[in-house]
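Recall from the previous lesson that a structure prediction takes nothing but the amino acid sequence as input. Here we apply that procedure to DNA-binding transcriptional ArsR family regulator from Phenylobacterium haematophilum. The sequence below is the only information supplied.
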Amino acid sequence: MNRHPYIAEVAALIGDPARANILSALMGGQALTATELAHVAGVTPQTASGHLGKLTDGRLLDLAVQGRHRYYRLASVDVARMLEGLMAFAADGAPRHRPRSIRDDALAAARTCYDHLAGRLGVALADALTARGHLILSDDGGTLTPRGRAHLSEFGAILPDGCRQRRQLCKPCLDWSERRWHVGGLVGAEIARRCFELGWLERAKEGRAIHVSREGETGLLRTFGVDWFGTRTQGDPPLSPEAVGLAGDLKLDH
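The prediction returns the following tokens.
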């Protein structure tokens, strides 16, 4: 009897281009309908139904039925972690001669990696939290310091006490576009949840890119010292005057 993990079966599920597009779309952390995923995959609803059935049977997706709609999401954080690792590995492969699009630039700027933040924004947050002694990130894992716990609790993050949580509290996650750490685990998820709750971040209409709102520009700077102006590129929208002024004040303080 073969007791080894069924790597070939999982690889075959992910390796189909349509199924890979479906899984990538669900990396945004939201549940999507079969119709939405058919559009993302570029296939007919009937073909998408077959792909979704295989992914669900393979324990890569979960299905929730609400009325007439069937919603799909990634089955677990472990699935998201596996996909992010594959994306990072694939990004180091031979370059494809395809012009960069506006969507590519938006994903590189700020996106969700399942339930936490990635791209330049995610890496900037990780850098700021590390520089202030709130987090320690390394190849061996991540640590939330007492100072960091107090700061994030004041921010409104809900973090469990003790070691009884099922999910890792703080975890470095290699960002496939920046090739550096962003913050995963419960800490990363709570930072993202609270930023969305405060209206600092807004989801794009399609895909998993996110936009920083005017309130978010100021909030990120005041709370984390993240100067979004300094991490942006020419294609990003302009900062609010308040955020520009606050950035200047912080630089003078230093």
